[in-house]
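User: For a benchmark we're assembling, each entry needs the component sequences followed by a predicted structure for the full assembly. Here are entry 17's components. Please fill in the structure.
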Amino acid sequence: MSTTATQTLDARGMNCPLPILRTKKALTGLAKGDTLAVVSTDPGSLKDMQAFCKQTGNELVASSANQGEFEFLIRKN
Amino acid sequence: MGATDKLLAQSLDPALLDQWFDQRFEAKMAEREAAHVPSLAIIATKGTMDWAYPPFILASTAGALGWDVSVFFTFYGLELLKKDLHLEISPLGNPSMPMKMPFGPQWLKDINWKVPNVVMAGIPGFEKMATGLMEQTVKNKGVASIDELRSACLEADAKLFACQMTVDLFGYSQDEFIPEIAGWIGAASFLPQAQKSDVCLFI
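Assistant: Structure for entry 17:
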Protein backbone atom coordinates (compact mmCIF):
# COMPACT_ATOMS: atom_id res chain seq x y z
CA MET A 1 0.00 0.00 0.00
CA SER A 2 2.69 2.49 0.97
CA THR A 3 4.47 1.96 -2.34
CA THR A 4 1.56 3.39 -4.30
CA ALA A 5 0.94 6.42 -2.09
CA THR A 6 2.27 9.87 -2.96
CA GLN A 7 3.63 10.21 0.56
CA THR A 8 3.86 8.07 3.67
CA LEU A 9 3.59 9.10 7.31
CA ASP A 10 4.95 7.04 10.14
CA ALA A 11 2.85 7.84 13.21
CA ARG A 12 3.84 4.73 15.14
CA GLY A 13 4.37 5.28 18.85
CA MET A 14 2.39 8.52 18.79
CA ASN A 15 -0.69 8.95 20.90
CA CYS A 16 -3.93 10.93 20.47
CA PRO A 17 -4.17 13.52 18.96
CA LEU A 18 -0.71 13.45 17.35
CA PRO A 19 -1.52 11.00 14.50
CA ILE A 20 -4.39 13.28 13.39
CA LEU A 21 -2.31 16.46 13.73
CA ARG A 22 0.54 14.97 11.71
CA THR A 23 -1.88 13.61 9.09
CA LYS A 24 -3.42 17.05 8.70
CA LYS A 25 0.02 18.59 8.33
CA ALA A 26 1.09 16.03 5.73
CA LEU A 27 -2.12 16.51 3.74
CA THR A 28 -1.58 20.27 3.63
CA GLY A 29 1.58 19.71 1.62
CA LEU A 30 -0.12 17.45 -0.93
CA ALA A 31 -2.06 18.32 -4.08
CA LYS A 32 -5.68 17.39 -4.75
CA GLY A 33 -5.91 13.72 -5.74
CA ASP A 34 -2.61 12.80 -4.08
CA THR A 35 -2.64 9.96 -1.59
CA LEU A 36 -1.15 9.67 1.86
CA ALA A 37 -0.37 6.40 3.57
CA VAL A 38 -0.36 6.53 7.36
CA VAL A 39 0.76 3.86 9.75
CA SER A 40 -0.01 4.18 13.46
CA THR A 41 -0.12 2.17 16.66
CA ASP A 42 -2.66 4.24 18.61
CA PRO A 43 -5.84 2.09 18.78
CA GLY A 44 -7.92 5.28 18.93
CA SER A 45 -6.63 6.34 15.52
CA LEU A 46 -8.85 3.76 13.80
CA LYS A 47 -12.04 5.65 14.66
CA ASP A 48 -10.34 9.07 14.72
CA MET A 49 -9.03 8.76 11.17
CA GLN A 50 -12.54 7.90 9.88
CA ALA A 51 -14.00 10.91 11.68
CA PHE A 52 -11.15 13.15 10.50
CA CYS A 53 -11.62 12.19 6.84
CA LYS A 54 -15.39 12.56 7.03
CA GLN A 55 -15.13 15.99 8.62
CA THR A 56 -12.42 17.34 6.35
CA GLY A 57 -13.90 15.92 3.15
CA ASN A 58 -10.91 13.75 2.33
CA GLU A 59 -11.43 10.18 1.20
CA LEU A 60 -10.39 7.29 3.40
CA VAL A 61 -9.63 4.83 0.62
CA ALA A 62 -8.57 1.96 2.85
CA SER A 63 -7.92 1.17 6.46
CA SER A 64 -6.64 -2.03 7.98
CA ALA A 65 -5.41 -3.36 11.28
CA ASN A 66 -2.87 -6.04 11.84
CA GLN A 67 -0.84 -6.99 14.88
CA GLY A 68 -1.28 -3.71 16.71
CA GLU A 69 -0.52 -1.57 13.68
CA PHE A 70 -3.08 0.42 11.74
CA GLU A 71 -2.68 1.41 8.12
CA PHE A 72 -4.66 4.08 6.34
CA LEU A 73 -4.72 5.34 2.80
CA ILE A 74 -6.18 8.81 2.37
CA ARG A 75 -6.87 10.64 -0.85
CA LYS A 76 -6.80 14.41 -0.64
CA ASN A 77 -9.89 16.12 -2.02
CA MET B 1 -50.25 39.97 2.14
CA GLY B 2 -48.29 42.25 -0.20
CA ALA B 3 -49.35 43.15 -3.73
CA THR B 4 -46.83 40.78 -5.33
CA ASP B 5 -47.93 37.94 -3.08
CA LYS B 6 -51.56 38.57 -4.08
CA LEU B 7 -50.68 38.51 -7.77
CA LEU B 8 -48.67 35.34 -7.31
CA ALA B 9 -51.45 33.69 -5.35
CA GLN B 10 -53.97 34.55 -8.07
CA SER B 11 -51.89 33.21 -10.91
CA LEU B 12 -50.46 30.17 -9.14
CA ASP B 13 -51.88 27.14 -7.48
CA PRO B 14 -51.24 27.72 -3.74
CA ALA B 15 -50.51 24.03 -3.22
CA LEU B 16 -47.85 24.13 -5.91
CA LEU B 17 -46.41 27.27 -4.40
CA ASP B 18 -46.16 25.58 -1.01
CA GLN B 19 -44.44 22.61 -2.56
CA TRP B 20 -41.99 24.85 -4.42
CA PHE B 21 -41.20 26.73 -1.25
CA ASP B 22 -40.61 23.56 0.77
CA GLN B 23 -38.17 22.27 -1.82
CA ARG B 24 -36.31 25.56 -2.11
CA PHE B 25 -36.17 25.86 1.64
CA GLU B 26 -34.69 22.37 2.02
CA ALA B 27 -32.11 23.06 -0.69
CA LYS B 28 -31.12 26.40 0.82
CA MET B 29 -30.80 24.94 4.30
CA ALA B 30 -28.62 22.10 3.00
CA GLU B 31 -26.46 24.64 1.14
CA ARG B 32 -26.09 26.67 4.30
CA GLU B 33 -25.18 23.65 6.37
CA ALA B 34 -22.55 22.55 3.85
CA ALA B 35 -20.94 25.99 3.88
CA HIS B 36 -20.98 26.23 7.68
CA VAL B 37 -17.57 26.09 9.37
CA PRO B 38 -17.99 24.55 12.84
CA SER B 39 -16.54 26.50 15.72
CA LEU B 40 -15.21 25.72 19.15
CA ALA B 41 -14.82 28.11 22.07
CA ILE B 42 -12.98 27.02 25.19
CA ILE B 43 -12.58 28.81 28.48
CA ALA B 44 -9.39 27.45 30.07
CA THR B 45 -9.10 28.20 33.77
CA LYS B 46 -6.54 25.79 35.14
CA GLY B 47 -2.77 25.89 35.06
CA THR B 48 -1.52 22.51 36.18
CA MET B 49 0.06 20.06 33.76
CA ASP B 50 -2.85 17.59 33.87
CA TRP B 51 -5.44 20.31 33.24
CA ALA B 52 -3.34 21.82 30.45
CA TYR B 53 -4.00 18.80 28.23
CA PRO B 54 -7.79 18.96 27.65
CA PRO B 55 -7.94 22.50 26.20
CA PHE B 56 -4.87 22.06 24.00
CA ILE B 57 -5.83 18.57 22.77
CA LEU B 58 -9.36 19.66 21.92
CA ALA B 59 -8.28 22.95 20.36
CA SER B 60 -5.50 21.43 18.21
CA THR B 61 -7.74 18.57 17.07
CA ALA B 62 -10.59 20.94 16.19
CA GLY B 63 -8.05 23.00 14.25
CA ALA B 64 -6.96 19.89 12.34
CA LEU B 65 -10.61 19.22 11.52
CA GLY B 66 -10.82 22.67 9.96
CA TRP B 67 -12.90 24.28 12.71
CA ASP B 68 -12.65 27.87 13.87
CA VAL B 69 -11.12 27.71 17.31
CA SER B 70 -10.81 30.29 20.05
CA VAL B 71 -9.61 29.74 23.59
CA PHE B 72 -9.93 32.23 26.43
CA PHE B 73 -7.28 31.72 29.11
CA THR B 74 -8.29 33.12 32.44
CA PHE B 75 -7.09 32.86 36.04
CA TYR B 76 -4.62 29.97 36.42
CA GLY B 77 -5.23 29.07 32.77
CA LEU B 78 -3.09 32.07 31.87
CA GLU B 79 -0.09 30.03 32.97
CA LEU B 80 -0.54 27.98 29.78
CA LEU B 81 0.36 30.99 27.64
CA LYS B 82 3.68 31.77 29.31
CA LYS B 83 6.78 31.76 27.12
CA ASP B 84 8.45 29.37 29.53
CA LEU B 85 6.09 26.64 30.54
CA HIS B 86 6.74 25.35 34.04
CA LEU B 87 3.63 23.32 34.57
CA GLU B 88 3.50 21.10 37.59
CA ILE B 89 1.17 18.39 38.71
CA SER B 90 -0.04 17.71 42.23
CA PRO B 91 -1.19 14.28 43.37
CA LEU B 92 -2.12 15.87 46.70
CA GLY B 93 -5.87 15.77 47.17
CA ASN B 94 -6.26 14.02 43.83
CA PRO B 95 -7.25 10.42 44.63
CA SER B 96 -7.99 9.67 40.95
CA MET B 97 -4.42 10.18 39.88
CA PRO B 98 -2.58 6.88 39.49
CA MET B 99 0.93 6.94 40.93
CA LYS B 100 3.02 4.60 38.83
CA MET B 101 6.72 4.36 38.11
CA PRO B 102 7.67 5.11 34.51
CA PHE B 103 10.95 3.19 34.94
CA GLY B 104 12.04 -0.31 35.80
CA PRO B 105 10.66 -3.78 35.12
CA GLN B 106 6.99 -4.20 34.22
CA TRP B 107 5.97 -5.55 37.65
CA LEU B 108 7.30 -2.37 39.23
CA LYS B 109 5.58 -0.14 36.66
CA ASP B 110 2.28 -1.89 37.34
CA ILE B 111 2.21 -1.01 41.03
CA ASN B 112 -0.12 1.87 41.88
CA TRP B 113 1.55 3.58 44.83
CA LYS B 114 -1.16 4.68 47.19
CA VAL B 115 0.62 7.43 49.10
CA PRO B 116 -1.54 8.99 51.84
CA ASN B 117 -2.15 12.75 51.51
CA VAL B 118 -0.50 13.42 54.85
CA VAL B 119 2.72 11.81 53.62
CA MET B 120 2.66 13.65 50.27
CA ALA B 121 2.11 16.95 52.06
CA GLY B 122 5.00 16.29 54.43
CA ILE B 123 7.70 15.32 51.94
CA PRO B 124 9.51 18.37 50.51
CA GLY B 125 9.69 18.29 46.73
CA PHE B 126 6.97 15.68 46.35
CA GLU B 127 5.21 17.65 43.61
CA LYS B 128 8.47 18.20 41.74
CA MET B 129 9.04 14.45 41.82
CA ALA B 130 5.46 13.67 40.71
CA THR B 131 5.84 16.20 37.87
CA GLY B 132 9.10 14.58 36.76
CA LEU B 133 7.52 11.13 36.79
CA MET B 134 4.51 12.37 34.83
CA GLU B 135 6.73 14.02 32.21
CA GLN B 136 8.57 10.73 31.81
CA THR B 137 5.30 8.80 31.50
CA VAL B 138 4.05 11.23 28.84
CA LYS B 139 7.27 10.74 26.89
CA ASN B 140 7.15 6.94 27.25
CA LYS B 141 3.58 6.75 25.96
CA GLY B 142 4.13 8.96 22.91
CA VAL B 143 1.80 11.66 24.22
CA ALA B 144 2.59 15.15 22.95
CA SER B 145 4.10 17.73 25.27
CA ILE B 146 2.05 20.83 26.11
CA ASP B 147 4.50 22.95 24.16
CA GLU B 148 4.00 20.78 21.10
CA LEU B 149 0.19 20.91 21.36
CA ARG B 150 0.25 24.67 21.84
CA SER B 151 2.34 25.03 18.68
CA ALA B 152 -0.13 22.78 16.85
CA CYS B 153 -2.96 25.09 17.96
CA LEU B 154 -1.12 28.12 16.63
CA GLU B 155 -0.30 26.37 13.36
CA ALA B 156 -4.00 25.62 12.96
CA ASP B 157 -4.77 29.32 13.46
CA ALA B 158 -6.53 28.80 16.76
CA LYS B 159 -7.03 32.17 18.42
CA LEU B 160 -5.59 32.17 21.92
CA PHE B 161 -6.92 35.01 24.06
CA ALA B 162 -5.52 36.12 27.40
CA CYS B 163 -7.65 37.55 30.17
CA GLN B 164 -6.41 41.08 30.84
CA MET B 165 -7.98 41.18 34.29
CA THR B 166 -5.95 38.15 35.41
CA VAL B 167 -2.75 39.76 34.15
CA ASP B 168 -3.45 42.75 36.39
CA LEU B 169 -4.68 40.62 39.27
CA PHE B 170 -1.59 38.42 39.44
CA GLY B 171 0.82 41.22 38.57
CA TYR B 172 2.08 39.66 35.34
CA SER B 173 3.56 41.64 32.49
CA GLN B 174 2.58 41.01 28.89
CA ASP B 175 6.11 40.17 27.79
CA GLU B 176 6.11 37.03 29.96
CA PHE B 177 3.69 35.55 27.42
CA ILE B 178 4.01 34.16 23.91
CA PRO B 179 3.77 36.86 21.22
CA GLU B 180 1.12 34.92 19.28
CA ILE B 181 -1.65 35.86 21.72
CA ALA B 182 -4.66 36.96 19.65
CA GLY B 183 -5.79 39.58 22.13
CA TRP B 184 -5.82 40.76 25.71
CA ILE B 185 -9.49 40.81 26.40
CA GLY B 186 -12.17 40.48 29.04
CA ALA B 187 -15.29 38.38 29.56
CA ALA B 188 -17.41 40.91 27.67
CA SER B 189 -15.32 40.37 24.54
CA PHE B 190 -15.14 36.61 24.74
CA LEU B 191 -18.76 35.82 25.58
CA PRO B 192 -20.17 37.07 22.26
CA GLN B 193 -17.70 34.73 20.48
CA ALA B 194 -18.68 31.85 22.73
CA GLN B 195 -22.34 32.59 22.05
CA LYS B 196 -21.86 32.03 18.32
CA SER B 197 -19.80 28.87 18.68
CA ASP B 198 -21.17 25.40 18.01
CA VAL B 199 -19.26 23.88 20.90
CA CYS B 200 -18.41 25.80 24.03
CA LEU B 201 -16.46 24.28 26.90
CA PHE B 202 -15.38 25.47 30.31
CA ILE B 203 -12.26 23.66 31.41
